[in-house]
Known about the structure:
Layout: E1 3-15, E2 18-27, E3 30-35, E4 42-48, E5 53-56, E6 58-63, H1 72-85, E7 88-93, H2 105-114, E8 121-127, H3 134-143, E9 147-151, H4 165-177, E10 181-185, H5 204-221, E11 224-227, H6 236-241, E12 249-254, H7 255-259, H8 281-292, E13 298-302, H9 317-327, H10 332-346, E14 363-373, E15 386-396, E16 399-400
Parallel strand pairs: 1-4, 6-7, 7-8, 8-9, 9-10, 10-11, 11-12, 12-13
Antiparallel strand pairs: 1-2, 2-3, 5-14, 14-15, 15-16
Helix pairs in contact: 4-5
Amino acid sequence: MTEFDIVVRSTRVVAPDGVRPASVAVRDGRIEAVGPYDAPASAAEETDLGDVALLPGAVDLDTGVQAPGQDLAEAYQTMGRAALRGGVTSVVAAPAPARPAITCADALHVHQRAAVGLPVSVYFLGGVNRGSGPLDLADLQAAGVVAFRGSLSDGGAPDMAALSDARLRKSMAEIAALDAVLLVHAEDADELVAPAMSVDQRPPRAERRGLERVIAAARVVGARTHVGPFSAAECAALLAAAESIGVALSAQSCAHYLCLPAEALHTDSPAHACRPPVRSDANRKALWSALLSEGSAITTVGSGHLPAHGLHTLDWNLPALWTAAQRRGLGLDELSRWTSRAPADLVGLTWKGRIAVGCDADLVAFDPLRRRTVPAVDPSPYAGRELIGGVGPVWVMGRRAPQDPDTTA
């Protein structure tokens, strides 16, 4: 009988073809077999989760890493531990705010060295700013970035200034030539009211105007573009209409936009730092409708983790999203698609984000019935709220990752 490194069994394995009882056999960090739940197998380690689900590890896009004044290597270690607590096994790190901002290959190498030895897989976005030229972008891709990131306002402040229409089109053309995707923070700077921190100072029209600019540029250039974070539900029709005119445009939202109405936020909630802002309950419900519409252009849901602005959301993104999703009668397959498979596919990490033969063995035990109240002192926007969903244990590349005792299912 074939000897595997590990075998994990669950009555609810979230595979690409649906949720079903299965056993997952792993060798050398890769999934070698996905068989029946009771399939005999010889392995050095075997875990039977019973009715606790087995999900592919989440792939978090555009993850902020560094808080002001924090050592970069320490920041990556802190982020990696938070990722594991939240069932995230792969992080695609944002280029800014960070020191140094990832806008050239030399800066990327600094981040790569700082991220060595993390318990999760780390990939990087290359920053696009006003001075980015074709050689800079090509060098970044050659050095290892999986996609690029730019902003039309303060989405990369202070390291990445807002792009003009001319610079946006030029960058899109250069990125299209590299067969890469561009992530864009699409709030238009001219529509923001200084100091641009509250809902009133960051109105939905800022997202609408930004989307119009992105669509106009992408239509001319033909670049693949992913807008995020996306929060203004009234812009969903504009987002959906892009496909009809041949624009390859999709979007990412975040769990806090789908779970937290602005009316329910305390005055000192970290959620007030979100850019774009957390909007009204009516907007939240409409955003869910847009996400669930047939052929929705909102394809990924990320954490929006941004320590530079006091947003610590990696730990709770999966339970928060599941808490809202299961109330709408949705299943674990939708949860996994938004947080694992779709983000992995977007940036070309096709060996991540799914439980399938040949893919990396990034596996997350997830108890969909476990209830937990987020501690009142937690730095996340979910402090004091009851969430559903327990994470752990977690395997990264087939190795069981260390976790805090109170995060296991």
